[in-house]
Amino acid sequence: MSIDRPPTGHTRVHRLRRHQFLTLHPARGLCLRAERGTLWVTIDGDRTDIELEPGQSRLFTGRAKVIVGTMGGDAVLSLTTVAAPSPRRGWRDWG
Question: What is the pTM of this model?
Fold first, then answer.
């Protein structure tokens, strides 16, 4: 499942069931927050996966595709669009 980006400063809440995934592309300028359940997050091109426990969040500043799933059971997450950071050029702009 992919989503439309909410307007800047607005938040959308999504429920993910076990074995369901959410694709964020582009993820730049999105703040992902785990509201309930544990989220598994992978950034395209990055070997390290991220686990977000309830209350934890992550702001994405790069152009890479991000895939979000659950760890174990159902989960609830929120996505808030923040002002996109100024564009950077170079190899460090991955995720």
Answer: 0.77
